[in-house]
## 1
Amino acid sequence: MSLSSQVADFFSVLGDRNRIRILGLLHQKSLTANEISSKLGGITLPALSYQLKKLEDHHFIKHQKDLQDGRKKYFTIADNHISHILNDAISHIQGGENCEDSLNCEENVEKMITQVI
């Protein structure tokens, strides 16, 4: 697959409102599928499972099993690049400032991500 196809595929994953909302929630802290579902509201567990798989397959999120209860999976943002992309998208839409070439955009994302959820 060409690089342009990979980039197009990457951005197509971000083309779903529920996936953006999931990323916003996971930016704040690690959550289980049930916790995500209850915070989002209006999304069934099967639909959420599909969205989580799509995000995980494209390396937006990752999961870790609970060490005490091996049945629970906690989902987190895969890396700081995802936070940076969210920050830049929100800043661009709102006409805000850039992160000054830094991948540490936590303050900007924290302020704006609540508007996404």
## 2
Amino acid sequence: MNKDFVPYKEALILKNLGLDISCFGFYNNADGNIWVKHEIDPEIKDIYKGDFEAPTYQQSFDWFEDEHSIFIDRKTYTNVNEIMNIEYSIKSWKFPPIKIEFENPYDCFDRDKARLECLKKLIEVTK
């Protein structure tokens, strides 16, 4: 389940951009590990006050759409037998679509790599 959470570095950037939502998990500042809230004993929860929320990718994408009116558009190109390509772009009523380019062209087929690249581009556009 950890791969559903935004990585530490990007989560910290999102926090600094103003993401302030209740999340399923949070990061421990001391070691950068994700803690899922329901796994923490309520009696020791106060120890973690200095930590910050660890949003999932979906929560982050929803936040960008709600707060900044930008979202990820995904188009899948197929033929009869296979997926030929997947294109990702950022769309908004504020500006023309921005295509997300991958260093490795096959990364578009790897969901985890694609989500991270999309998130990085959303952060870049928002700054």
## 3
Amino acid sequence: MLILISVLAAIIPMTVYLILIWKFDKYEREPFGLVFKSYLWGAIGAIFFAIFLSLLLSSSISLFILNKNLMDKVDTIYIAPLVEESTKGIFLLILVTSKKFDNVTDGLVYGGAIGLGFGMTENLLYFLSYGKTLPELLSLVVIRSLFSAVMHCVSTGTFGAFLGYAKFNRTIHKVILPFVGLIAAMVIHFTWNFSVSYRSTAGLGFLFMFLTILIFIGVYTISILKEKKIIYNELLPETEAGLIPSAHLKILSSPQRNKPGWVDESIRKSYIKAASTLAFRKMEQKNSRGYRKTSYEKDVDYYRNYIKDLLNQTFLNR
């Protein structure tokens, strides 16, 4: 019975969090398949490499630290943040090269998904190892589901946000920001692990994590609003050029676009997706160079023609 509860308690909360951070991205939602792959990387790939590298690093350091209690602290406070944030971040470094990953919001979503997957597997291992009685298990479920696992979401999401911001930055920050993001992720992880490793600082740890979660939500909200602004600003010239009807401009950059009635229902979802993608490809085109710029220019032409065909088709069918 405890095993079943452990499995469900590990999977359900993290899956709910995953769906929430995905759906909250209202204006340029990422493909769920790619978000789920990120989740699986955290749950399987990152965990596997983290365990392997942690054991390797720990066994090497233990040659110099003979005190078991001290070595346990080193494993938890220092080795875990260093190794786990690195292994979780590997998939983000691959994803950031994709056209699907183009801003801070995307980094928060993909990084958050990886962290939640990692937290899910880590929770399961903790529940099975230390939840020997129902009260012990329930206590673990509450603490780890609300804080420890969410810490993985926030820390890796932070790294993802820095990658998203750096991707189209033309200055030296393009190189520096990813390193800053990884260090920030490790610091969040380190601070949580350090604080809850001692009774005297555990309260400060929970307070720190609570504030960090609020900051994560705040940055996510601001990033969503910025996406709305990008869509409006980049589609404004398309309205002036006659591609997109002026009545559609504000709707396409607001939650109202998800309501029926403002455009033919048969094309509404395709139109929204194409218009949003066009806006972001234009932004990316402006901030790219070389072959990437050429690739984005082709995408811009493609989506302009696609939108034109969609609207003409609707007009002819009337």
## 4
Amino acid sequence: MTEARGGGVRHETVREDRAGQRLDNFLIGLLGSVPRSLVYRIVRTGQVRVNGSRAKPMKKLKAGDVVRVPPVKLEKRAEPRLPSGLIDQVERCLIEQNDQFAILNKPSGLAVHGGTGLDFGLMDAIKQRHPDWRPVHRLDRPTSGLLLMACNHRALRSLQKSFMAREVEKRYFALLDGVLPEPLMRVDVPLKKIRDGSGQHRVVPAEDGQDAVSTFRLLERVGDYSYVEVEIETGRTHQIRAHAAGIDLPLVGDELYNFHTASMTVNRLFLHAHYLRLSWPEDCVYSAPLPDELSDVLSRCRLS
């Protein structure tokens, strides 16, 4: 079954409160829960115009810009059947909830959104009890840790502006497969999405990619591994994983980017978003300790 979004062709004028927003995010806000791939397709094929001209999905809009928005059709997604207990499990992950935002400590293995071979995602469970909540950023499916949700549209706009202005501080714990050559290493390398020979999407360093900056700080050398804290100034897809692999120190447990010969068995990616500092609506800091299964990996490394 298909459903149309947006009726016929319409022309939307960008308001002051949307100035600076990327075109793709602007369209998603207008069209609702449409696949991002569909948004990219209608932009790439020229069906979307900004002030009468074609534009790229990453174009930053200005107040007063006029965006041509075509009607879109998509397959209506059946309501997913959620595993028993998932909704309660997600509720237990909440570490902060107020009128503006909520913060969850997302477990590894749970995608933020369903689709692309996944029957369900975290948001399918969230909307059962909090239908107005929207994620402000994303974590990869195998990454655990702090995930920020906006509880209303005004909060979503304000928090997105904070992210775009790089006023949000995010730090991760990670275990690198190898020895970090310096106590502090800043990686400023643009990243680009590609599809590799096997058909998988991955991210690689590329001069024509999007700017991406990650700083690796050594916390402990554990044998042939480096336990680090990573601070990111940008939030690109697979940023930490791609930057670590790019300096030949891929993350332990990374099935997509780690091509080193496995010297120990791990059942998940060693990457955990442990620190989040917000500047809106006020300056506040949240943290989530390293999960037990990752602490066990560190202990095994120390023993060996």
